[in-house]
């Protein structure tokens, strides 16, 4: 049995129905905490469960982001960032582009990316470097992410049950890097992802 507690939100994962009943009977007696049934939402993350999988997403929050910045009806694009875009800081004598709430948008997208949208992580991380003084190019790149989000609001992460014995649920890791591709420092950029049961966990 796994028990996750965040302030007054409690999530229990178990395949022992009797053990869960005893736990919630004790919690009810001591604190008035009752079993709310199958989990559908936890800390803003929506949860959809079937016999074979669990899918998590933040579609409501994604819609909130799009509405906040006026992109609910935006024309969608197929990826969050152009592959060959080069982002560099503004020069000291250049003025920042203040026509868009850049810092707020990056912050909201970062929360989404770290929750259930790893497909946004790289692009948002790149743009987070320029929140102090964004250029028109930075703003344009950020708006592309919003257009990508407009077409992918329902995206999330699915974890699948293993149907084999022994279990095929295994921790897997992948990484990649470019070669001195940073236009400023000429340093390499590395990315990685770890998956469990077919879905990203880190």
TrEMBL record:
It holds the Pfam family RVT_2. SUPFAM superfamilies: DNA/RNA polymerases. InterPro entries: DNA/RNA_pol_sf (IPR043502), RVT_2 (IPR013103). Residues 1-82 form the Reverse transcriptase Ty1/copia-type domain. PANTHER family: GAG-POL-RELATED RETROTRANSPOSON (PTHR11439), INTEGRASE CATALYTIC DOMAIN-CONTAINING PROTEIN (PTHR11439:SF491). This is Reverse transcriptase Ty1/copia-type domain-containing protein. It comes from Phytophthora cactorum. The lineage of its organism: Eukaryota, Sar, Stramenopiles, Oomycota, Peronosporomycetes.
């Amino acid at each position: 049995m796994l028990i996750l507690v965040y302030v007054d939100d409690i999530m229990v994962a178990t395949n022992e129905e009797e053990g869960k009943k005893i736990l919630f009977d004790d919690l009810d007696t001591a604190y008035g905490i009752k079993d709310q049934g199958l989990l559908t939402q936890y800390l803003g993350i929506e949860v959809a469960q079937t016999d074979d999988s669990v899918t998590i997403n933040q579609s409501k929050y994604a819609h909130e982001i799009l509405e906040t910045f006026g992109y609910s009806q935006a024309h969608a694009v197929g990826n969050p960032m152009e592959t060959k875009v080069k982002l560099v800081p503004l020069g000291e004598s250049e003025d920042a582009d203040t026509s868009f709430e850049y810092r707020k948008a990056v912050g909201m997208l970062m929360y989404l990316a770290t929750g259930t949208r790893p497909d946004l992580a790289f692009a948002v991380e790149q743009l987070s470097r320029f929140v102090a003084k964004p250029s028109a190019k930075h703003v344009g790149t950020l708006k592309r992410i919003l257009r990508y989000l407009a077409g992918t609001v329902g995206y999330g992460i699915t974890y699948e049950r293993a149907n084999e014995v022994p279990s095929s649920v295994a921790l897997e890791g992948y990484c990649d890097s470019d070669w001195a591709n940073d236009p400023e420092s000429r340093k390499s950029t590395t990315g990685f992802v770890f998956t469990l049961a077919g879905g990203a966990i880190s």
